[in-house]
Write a structure and sequence with these properties.
Number of helices of chain B: 13
Number of strands of chain A: 10
Oligomer: heterodimer
Strand content of chain A: 15-25%
Strand content of chain B: 15-25%
Radius of gyration of chain B: 21 Å
CATH class of chain A: Alpha Beta
Number of helices of chain A: 11
Number of strands of chain B: 15
Number of domains of chain A: 1
Largest interface: A-B, 47 and 51 residues
Shape of chain A: globular
Order of helices and strands of chain A: HEHEHEHHEEEHHEHEHHEEH
CATH architecture of chain A: 3-Layer(aba) Sandwich
Distance between the termini of chain B: 45 Å
Strand order of the largest sheet of chain B: 3-2-4-5-7-6-13
Chain lengths: 287, 359
């Protein structure tokens, strides 16, 4: 008996040619160099965004309004029309653009520092006004671009460069669950929170983006998708530990799921309970 | 020409519509409020949009978005509200968007804010200061033209008197000539073409990593030099033989012109130099107008703001003295005791050089 390793039998030629990395690239993504860190969740989220725009047939009617954060530099690679806004100000800019171009698919792309710290009132008013735009929040719980500082969404206990002993509610205040502020407003039609820390979440988040854009295309009102993204650099964890840290630290605060869709309107607390129940149900029964 | 008796705010709003303004956003604040009211009434019935913004920051943001799509758009406020807009004003200048900003000022306390601003970095915008409503109607339309011509914000500096006084004016569309195509605006149609656009204030380009701030800022600085060289506007009234040249702008210049006429009747050799553009300040024209003068009297309603530009224009060639000063009504809205023909005349008369001196 030989100790040769087994060989995969080849009884027919491959049905499709080999595909290189570029073949998986969305059409709306240019292959521009960028400076985002390894393990960053933002390019994953932006890729989903571009995929959905393409799949909805909206590539030639989309205008993105971009905030200021790490993702800003990445937008040179987004092959859709863009307007660069100031920090926090994208929702009002999107409002003006939508009112002049009602047929365009208008979205904002903002981080948690941008939307929830600097520009909180902008997104709240835009939702309340029922502005027919889609705001997309990339929430990693830190100012990534400045190097890992506390934002309004940072979890209690989370260590950042200006909460070295962890965010202390008594000293630094409590995190804002922005989706909870937006979902109950009369002007908002669709509000959801997704994540890109694992494959299942990526698929679910893509569906959320699609539903949000559909709400806009159908003129139903304001739509909002928050996407939890990894920031291993700003969290001071090894790259590979980013997804686990997101799941362990951010998700218990900013639970994933749909908060508002049609008749449904729930809080993040309700989502946490729903998710816990679903997890318990999925666990195999013990003998 | 059909003339009508119109409130200043309404005439200005109608002039903006005549210029093709399709979008306005604003937040109420005296004495700007009525302008917002008239846009809210007039724009929707003509297919435009007026939004009651939740703050001045959002008002200018909304205008920014409308401008980025290529529409003619405007916002406005008074000095306090425009103070809130300063970050956007500097950055929208770098985004090269043709914003028109209506500044219904509380008097002339905001000359420095209007001409220097409080935003960041090197930026400038044209500031037009009409003397009366007839000129305001023309300059409002010119503001939209200059904004598009230079892809640069233009501010119309009015005040309580201009906004609230009724005058008989005709609002007719004015022609200022051809403008370049807005080949930078976004309508969403270029996605996936490899030529999609990014209307942005930092010089980002699609498909190119990073930015080149130094080259970008130098190009904008050169543009602002070109605007400064091309767009200075002024009125020199009876300055040729004047011993005393009064320098005044906006509503107060109207009082100054009246004083000059009255004193001329009595034989005084006095003239008025009126900057129509506060930026670019018509420095060379003022230097020419002041060539034979023995004294320059700056009439402005503040502790001394434009006087800095007057001194820079004259570089000590002629003595410059302030004859205005702080003056306010009880509410602080900008119409103080200084706004009285006899008071202005008394101050101008008091500045006349003693007769017989060398010119």
């Amino acid at each position: 008996m030989s100790d040769r390793s087994p060989t995969v039998p080849i009884d027919r030629p491959p049905s499709e040619p080999a595909r290189r990395l570029g073949h998986f690239k969305p059409r709306l993504l240019l292959d521009t160099d960028h400076d985002l860190c390894p393990g960053c969740g933002e390019p994953v989220a932006i890729r989903l965004l571009l995929d959905v725009i393409e799949e909805l047939g909206c590539a030639e009617r989309a205008i993105g309004v971009v905030g200021i954060g790490c993702y800003t530099a990445f937008t040179s690679a987004m092959d859709v029309d863009l307007v660069q806004a100031l920090h926090g100000r994208a929702p009002s800019v999107a409002t003006g653009a939508k009112r002049m171009r009602p047929d365009a698919l208008i979205f904002t792309l903002q981080g948690d520092g941008d939307m929830v710290n600097e520009g909180l009132q902008e997104v709240v008013h835009t939702a309340a006004r029922g502005e027919v735009v889609t705001c997309v929040l990339l929430n990693n719980g830190v100012f990534g671009e400045t190097g890992g500082h506390m934002t309004a969404t940072t979890a209690l206990g989370q260590r950042t460069k200006n909460t070295l002993e962890g965010r202390d509610a008594a000293y630094h205040g409590h995190p804002i669950r922005i989706a909870d502020l937006l979902a109950p407003l009369g002007g908002s039609a669709y509000v959801a929170r997704g994540s890109v820390h694992d494959a299942t979440s990526v698929v679910k988040t893509k569906a959320m983006l699609r539903r949000a854009f559909e709400a806009q295309l159908e003129g139903r009102g304001f739509s909002f998708v928050e996407i939890l993204t990894m920031c291993p650099t700003g969290w001071f964890v090894p790259t590979a530990e980013g997804p686990g840290y997101l799941d362990r630290v951010l998700r218990p605060v900013h639970a994933t799921g749909e908060l508002k869709n049609g008749e449904r309107c729930v809080t993040t607390a309700a989502l946490l309970a729903e998710n816990a129940a679903a997890q318990a149900a999925a666990r195999p029964p013990r003998d | 020409m059909t003339r009508a008796l119109l409130e200043g705010s309404e005439a200005i709003a109608r002039a903006a519509l005549a210029a093709g303004c399709r979008f306005f956003a604003g937040y109420p604040m005296t004495p700007f409020t009525e302008l917002l009211e008239h846009f809210a009434e007039l724009l929707p019935e003509r297919g435009g949009v007026c939004i009651n913004a939740e703050s001045e920051l959002e008002a200018i943001g909304m205008a920014w978005g409308a401008l980025a799509t290529g529409a003619r758009a405007a916002t406005g406020s008074t000095g306090q509200g425009i103070a809130l807009m300063q970050e956007s004003l500097s950055e929208i200048t770098r985004a090269e968007l043709p914003l028109v900003l209506f500044h219904m000022a509380r008097g002339q306390y905001d000359y420095t804010q209007a001409t220097r601003g409080g935003g960041h970095g090197d930026y400038r915008h044209v500031v037009l200061a009409p003397v009366d409503l007839r000129e305001a109607v023309a300059l409002t339309q010119l503001a939209f033209h200059l904004a598009d011509r230079w892809r640069n914000p233009v501010q119309l500096y009015g005040d309580f008197l201009l906004a609230h006084t009724f005058e008989s004016v005709a609002v007719e569309p004015l022609e200022f000539g051809a403008l370049p195509e807005k080949d930078w605006a976004v309508d969403g149609s270029l996605g996936g073409s490899g030529h999609s656009r990014n209307v942005n204030p930092i010089g980002m380009r699609k498909g190119v990593k990073g930015i080149e701030p130094e080259a970008f800022w130098k190009r904008l600085a050169a543009k602002h030099e070109a605007i400064a060289a091309a767009e200075a506007r002024w009125e020199a009234h009876r300055c040729d033989d004047a011993d005393l040249v009064v320098v005044a702008f906006g509503s107060l210049a109207r009082f100054a012109r009246h004083a000059v006429e009255a004193l001329r009747v009595g034989g005084a050799r006095v003239g008025l130099f009126r900057p129509v553009t506060l930026w670019p300040f018509p420095a060379q024209a003022l230097a020419r107008a002041a060539t034979g003068a023995r004294r320059i009297a700056v009439l402005e309603q503040n502790a001394g703001q434009m006087i800095d530009d007057v001194r820079l224009a004259l570089l000590g060639a002629v003595p410059v003295e302030a004859i205005g000063g702080i003056s306010s009504d009880e509410a602080g809205f900008g119409v103080g005791d200084l706004y009285a023909p006899d008071e202005v005349r008394r101050r101008v008369e008091g500045a006349l050089p003693a007769p017989g001196g060398a010119r």
